[in-house]
Design a protein that fits this description.
Blueprint (H helix, E strand, L loop, with lengths): L2 H8 L7 H11 L6 H14 L7 H16 L4 H20 L27 H9 L6 H13 L3 H5 L6 E2 L2 E4 L10 E4 L17 H14 L9 H12 L4 H8 L4 H4 L7 H10 L4 H18 L1
Antiparallel strand pairs: 1-2, 2-3
Helix pairs in contact: 2-5, 3-5, 4-5, 7-9, 7-10
Length: about 300
């Protein structure tokens, strides 16, 4: 008796394959922002774990996948992006599709990248970079500036459509984000021109060429597009926003991820004591009063 017939006789839910979950995710959600990682994981599973069922078997395969990537000295960020694909399928399988009876996605770890670089641009440096975008690349100039002012990932920016804009805010649907969760990001008051024509009439290649030309012109060949996201976090910290706000606007899954920016808030911590009520004088006054009372009673 094969498994399908056995499940029917025993009244058990038929177990689904990982590839079934992957295809359903793509069908039901806009997963374009993770297309590269999804395609890579799909190919790896096809070669190394064909037909693997969703459950412990998927966890075992994913851990093997992680191990192979570490052995190949891939960056932790790349490993995490590909691991997130498996985590997303496992999460949907439990929380939305009822394919499994317990949550398994949390059992796949995504260690924070070691010695992660952080490059932040000041407001003046942002202006210089934007002005350095070559003539004729007005669309790409808008995308680069919007990245600095919203912290959206490149894939999220290129997938923006008019129906993502609501009341001066960018509203990203669950399928448009890396975490698979909806995210709302406020737009600056003067950003109307940047989003006047969506989606942006450009491609990943055109954006890369424009960005690389601009960074070369300002003498910042070390700059990466993702650094514009870090720049947004820096601008938020300078504006006095708390870490939980930064977490929400960047779409981080937890404060642990946002803690990479903790050093930005150090100067604000020193100001906390100055904002607390001045109660020490009252305590000293009360102490002196008590001493006087003791002297009188004796």
């Amino acid at each position: 008796m094969n498994e399908e017939k056995f499940n029917g006789v025993m009244g058990r839910v038929e177990r689904k394959r990982f590839i079934d979950g992957l295809l359903r995710w793509i069908e039901e959600y806009d997963a374009e922002s993770q297309a590269l990682s999804i395609n890579w994981v799909a190919r790896w599973m096809e070669v190394n774990a064909p037909g693997v069922l969703i459950g412990q078997e998927t966890l075992d395969a994913a851990r093997k996948m992680q191990k192979e990537m570490r052995q190949k000295k891939l960056s932790q960020s790349t490993i995490n992006n590909r691991t997130q694909v498996v985590k997303r399928v496992l999460s949907l399988a439990y929380r939305e599709w009822d394919w499994i009876e317990q949550p398994l996605d949390a059992k796949l770890r995504k260690p924070a990248p070691k010695n992660e670089r952080h490059v932040y641009l000041t407001a003046e440096q942002i202006r210089q970079l934007v002005l350095a975008v070559p003539e004729g690349r007005e669309v790409e100039r808008k995308v680069i500036l919007l990245a600095c002012l919203t912290g959206l990932r490149k894939s999220e920016l290129l997938a923006l459509a008019a129906d993502n804009i609501h009341g001066g805010r960018i509203v990203l649907r669950p399928g448009q984000t890396k975490s698979g969760k909806a995210r709302v990001v406020p737009l600056p008051n003067d950003a109307d021109e940047l989003i006047a024509s969506l989606p942006f009439d450009t491609t990943v290649h055109k954006l890369r060429v424009a960005f690389e030309s601009a960074r070369k012109a300002v003498g910042r060949k070390d700059l990466r597009f993702h650094d514009l996201r870090h720049t947004y976090a820096s601008l938020l910290a300078e504006a006095g926003e708390v870490m939980t706000t930064v977490q929400a606007l960047l779409g981080h899954s937890s404060l642990i991820v946002t803690s990479r920016y903790a050093h930005m808030f150090d100067s604000r911590l020193d100001q906390v004591a100055g904002r607390l009520p001045q109660l020490c004088d009252q305590n000293a006054t009360k102490a002196r009063g008590l001493k006087g009372l003791i002297d009188v009673t004796h």
